[in-house]
Amino acid sequence: MEQLPTFFAPAERDPVDEQCRLCKELASEPLLQPLLDRFPGPALILKQLRQAVAVNKKLVALLQIPAGELLGLRPGEMLDCIRWREGPWGCGTTVFCRACEALRAVLNRAII
Description:
mainly alpha; two-stranded antiparallel ribbon
């Protein structure tokens, strides 16, 4: 697969059918959502390509967006970062993303 042009993080995304399959698979895990919802603040689980595959109720309440609409999005897209639309492929791909500490934490697999 040819890499998409980007100014910082990889731009590729999972195909919609693969994204939906994984979200459904995670939703069927009986302990995952209750555990995620017990987290003390807003939380999400991201795939390697930085797309959300699970979100907790606190994040849904904070953003006032249904959970189903958040799945597949990247964090900057969820939070409506002022720069995410300026990149060729969304959150993480703009020249400004190089200075985003949240993105750096995600890329380094840190918990934020």
